[in-house]
Design brief:
- The protein has about 375 residues and is an alpha/beta fold.
- It has two domains: about 250 residues, 3-Layer(aba) Sandwich (Rossmann fold); about 80 residues, no CATH class.
- It contains ten helices and 15 strands.
- It is globular, with a radius of gyration of 25 Å.
- The termini are far apart.
């Protein structure tokens, strides 16, 4: 009798190709920091470590940059942070080498910034905002951050040197897909009661996570209030409507700053170093990666008509969902017949999709008119 003989009813569980595409986390921070006295079991050297609350501050030591960076982040918002602790070194060149890090393909060892590339494999999350407070303004570090961030489809937050307008503009021009912030922050040290100054990137990262949590990653962090700082190390004048204020001059060259208006401190600037809008780039990264991740499990299937149209329809469902949430203004996925016909036999299938991105209301213009018509009632 045949081995597959069955007298009765059976059931097969088929793949649900129509299930929704999940949107990836957009707000995970990747932090490179030093702390020789940190607990090595909690923050081992050159090893991505997941930190999801300020409770680990007690294990972060008191030397180096780790404790201050985590404190600045968690002052702004609850966040998931991938920490890579690197060695401290009095020699500036050695210190930079530790921060930038390396990859040893023979041993599989990742160090410094390069260790963030292994974060997803080791702790299950991909950093989307990359910071190295007190180091990112140094020559070579920002460039390494941008390189690593590009591989992760993340954005680096790079500090300026605050060495004068012309120098800072030249620094910013060296980068492309980076948030370049020239604004050291002043804040009250809880232990000493004194005002201290630090680079702003950790605070800006925490601020962006808070905006993400409150409004969504598709909104700009600009013109939102930063919490618990008392000033900036560089005086930056800001006058609403002025094209010649220092804040506007910096913004016109894609430098993000922090300004004081009506007694509060606000992040001010919408653009990456290359002029692209910050939320636009984040939408492109997050939506694109979400589509890739959702279809990895559908790789190596037969390219039948049902398969090709099923993938197309699944992407279109995601785009409609994003439109309904006002993440995008519209979008459509389609299959290019000519392109795919030419690719028959190569094992490659193409799907195209577009995204409509909302304008960011960066410039609001009100036109004032003078009229005498409202005085006419006086003489009626």
């Amino acid at each position: 009798m045949a081995a597959d003989y069955l007298h009765g009813v059976e059931q097969y569980f088929l793949d649900d190709e129509g299930r929704p595409i999940e949107i990836l986390a957009a707000s995970t921070i990747g932090l490179i920091a030093t702390a020789d006295d940190a607990d090595p079991t909690v923050f081992p050297l050159n090893t991505p470590t997941l930190c999801n609350s300020d409770k680990l501050l007690a294990k972060a030591g008191t030397t180096g940059t780790l404790r201050n960076a985590l404190s600045d982040i968690y002052t702004q918002a609850g966040a998931v942070v991938v920490v890579v602790r690197v060695e401290s070194d009095e020699d500036p060149e050695e210190q930079l080498a530790h921060v930038v890090g390396s990859i040893d393909n023979e041993t599989g060892k990742y160090t410094g910034l390069k260790a963030l590339l292994a974060a997803e494999s080791l702790v299950g999350v991909r950093p989307r905002l990359i910071i190295a407070p007190e180091f990112s303004h140094l020559l070579g570090v920002g460039a390494a951050m941008e390189t690593v961030a590009k591989k992760l489809n993340a954005l680096p937050i790079i500090d300026g040197t605050e060495s004068g307008y012309s120098n800072v503009i030249d620094e910013c021009a060296q980068f492309k897909e980076a948030i370049f912030v020239n604004a050291g922050i002043k804040l009250l040290d809880e232990k000493t009661g004194l005002i201290v100054t630090r680079k702003a990137s950790a605070t800006v990262a925490g601020h962006m996570v808070r905006v993400d949590n409150d409004e969504g990653y598709w909104n700009s962090p600009s013109s939102r209030k930063i919490l618990n700082i008392v000033g900036t190390s560089e005086v930056i004048d800001h006058a609403i409507g002025s094209t010649t204020s220092k804040a506007n001059l910096y913004n016109s060259k894609n430098v993000v700053v922090i300004v004081n208006q009506q007694g509060g401190w606000f992040l001010y600037g919408n653009r990456l170093a290359n002029g692209a809008m910050i939320p636009h780039q984040r939408i492109r990264y997050i939506v694109g990666d979400s589509i890739l991740y959702a279809h990895q499990e559908l790789c190596d299937r037969n390219a039948t008509g049902g398969y090709v149209s099923g993938v197309k329809n699944r992407v279109n469902k995601l785009l409609r969902r994003l439109k309904s949430r006002e993440v995008i203004s519209g979008g459509e996925c389609w299959v290019d017949k000519e392109l795919n016909t030419a690719a028959i036999g190569t094992g490659q299938v193409y799907w195209d999709y577009d995204l409509g991105l909302y304008d960011v209301a960066e410039r609001l213009t009100f036109r004032q008119h003078i009229s005498t018509k409202y005085n006419e009632s006086i003489f009626e």
